[in-house]
Write a structure and sequence with these properties.
- By secondary structure, the protein is an all-alpha fold.
- The protein has one domain.
- The protein has 4 helices and no strands.
């Protein structure tokens, strides 16, 4: 049991969240695309509960953004946070 806790803790420390400013940008981008349930969308993409965008990693942010664009038939180009 302690090994599992150690692995989960080290993973959390290794991947810092994107922070509030970048999270705000993700919210705005999803809103411009017409999405209203941002956390639901992210949860579906990441297959887990997402209570805050500020805590997701940059890689997870990219997955959410790319999924949102592709659902609308769009291509992600030149994303800046």
């Amino acid at each position: 049991m302690w090994l599992l806790e150690e692995v989960l803790t080290s993973q959390a420390l290794a991947a810092p969240g994107i922070g509030k400013a970048v999270a705000c940008g993700l919210h705005r981008g999803l809103g411009r695309l017409g999405y209203r349930e941002h956390y639901t969308l992210a949860g579906d993409v990441l297959n887990r509960v997402v209570p805050s965008f500020a805590a997701i990693t940059a890689e997870e942010r990219d997955l959410v953004r790319e999924y949102a664009y592709r659902q609308l038939g769009l291509v992600v180009c030149g994303w800046s946070a």
